[in-house]
Description:
By secondary structure, the chain is an alpha+beta fold. The protein has a single domain (3-127), classed as Cytidine Deaminase, domain 2 (3-Layer(aba) Sandwich), CATH 3.40.140.10. The chain is built from four helices and six strands, in the order αββαββαββα. The chain has helices spanning 3-18, 58-68, 94-102, 124-127; strands spanning 28-36, 41-45, 74-83, 86-88, 109-113, 119-123. The radius of gyration is 14 Å and the shape is globular.
Amino acid sequence: MSHKALTKTLKDNALKMTEKSFSPYSNFQVGASLCSDSDRIFNGCNVENLAFPVGTCAEEAAIAAMISAGEHKIKEIVIVASKDGKEVPCSPCGACRQRIAQFSDKDTLIRFVDASGTMVAQTISELLPHSFSFE
């Protein structure tokens, strides 16, 4: 699959995952879709909990699915958010940036919609330049 086709597939999957989101409190639906180093695709959605902040982020869910399948490296991840049926800006939260960094290399691409409504791509090192590491 070409890189452009992969990105489209990941975005389409992430958008579909927003529909599976459990977000009755904020109505802020987030979907994530990632491709592992072995070209397997994993998806996740956010799951809110009445006992805030116990919920799960979409990126966290997609990473957990990848790890559960025995994979450990993200090639690319796309995050899409929707509120009231409209796509809205959403970059990964700080905790998810660290989660993504743990299973990435410095050139792993993260794609998300910015405040202007444009899909942007940044590397994890651009989003989290000083991530925590034991190295």
